[in-house]
Amino acid sequence: MPTFIHGKSSGVLLNQFDLSAYFNSVDTSQSIDTAEITGFGSSAKSYIPGLNDATLSLSGMYSQDATVGEDVVLSTILGSTTTPIITVPMETGTIGKRAIVAKAHETSYSISTPVGDVVSITADFNASTDGTSNLTYGMRSGVMLTAGASIAYGALAALTSVDNAASSASGGFANLHVTANSIAGGTTTIKVQHSPDNSTWADLITFTAVAASTTTSQQSAVSGTVNRYLRVLPSTAGSSGAITFHVSFARF
Amino acid sequence: MRYKVTGGSDGVSGLDVGTKRYDAGDEVELTAKQAEWLLEQGYVESVDAKTSKAKTVVEELTVEEETEL
To answer: Do A200 and B15 touch (CB under 8 A)?
Structure first.
């Protein structure tokens, strides 16, 4: 039987912010242009695929929260030269669940203030590769490799692996959102590893080390073989504190 | 067999074999089955193969010296 899920467990991770509580609807769309190549003598039209495109729309409630509120975040990234990194987990809190993994420019941000209802907001995004090396698409469906829980510095270790049932040959990309970080005394390194047998692991992606007590976001893309199993390996040189981070990976 | 961790395409990729961590430049003991995909994907290179190749070169130089005398 198919595994259906309820929308209530979705979330929104945007750069270093977990904005899940501010939104109540996410719409994503992925499409591809087709060019017609129908020739004389054909009985039906033929097409070849062209360029991929993807959009993402967020809607939710306006808040006046400072610094980490969605109004501050969405206002700041509108027109920013740094393309926002976005992950939409379809079922937050569980490793292996599907997610939308994206890098996308904010194209509009609207606030609606009705006299008889809650103040609401909408924001639209266009996925973009920005010509980034190995980044074939700006948005793809992928999987969550973390549960997004707070992990104490002394408990950082390899997380549960995710089985894709087969390897893939065209690379992929990962998003990292560090949404809370009180680890002090050293940097924290987060890697995505892959394996064909769930036993011997090699580093696939090593994100830039996260500075002590710093929240951040990163995206990294790779080419070539991505083996069947994926997992996250965090480690730290820090000596106290805890970190909350989210990693998703999408294969091309 | 013994293998050297190459660092992969980014030069910094390491391995985890069982509970042990091996970083780029480290040597690791692997079974043929364990090493197969790591060799294919460029994460390790055989230390033994490099050693035997180096010995062959030395032997060839020795032969040339004997010819000159």
So the answer is: yes
What pLDDT was estimated at residue B52? 53
Topology adopted by domain A149-251: Jelly Rolls (2.60.120)
Of B9, B10, B17, the CB nearest to A200: B17
Rounded CA separation B65/B69 (Å): 7
Which residue ranges of chain A lie beneath pLDDT 50? none
Residue B60 confidence (pLDDT): 53
Indicate whether this complex's ipTM tops 0.90. Answer: no
Taking Cα atoms as reference points, which of A248, A214, A244, A212 lies closest to residue A231? A248
Q: Which residue has the tokens 């070169």?
A: B57
Q: Is the dihedral of CA A26, A176, A252, A102 positive or negative?
A: positive
Same fold, A8-35+47-141 and A149-251: no
Domain ranges of chain A: 8-35+47-141, 149-251
What is the spatial distance between Cα A141 and Cα A7, in angstroms, rounded to a whole number?
A: 16
pLDDT computed for residue B66 by the predictor: 53
The residue of B3, B5, B13 whose CB has the most chain A CBs within 10 angstroms, and thus the best one to mutate to test that interface, is B13
Chain A contact for B50 (CB, 8 A cutoff): no
CB A54 within 8 A of CB A29: yes
Provide the residue range defining the domain that includes B37.
Answer: 1-69
Q: What would the CATH number be for the domain defined by A8-35+47-141?
A: 2.40.10
Closest Cα to residue A196, out of A164, A168, A229, A174?
A229
Whole-prediction pTM value?
Answer: 0.91
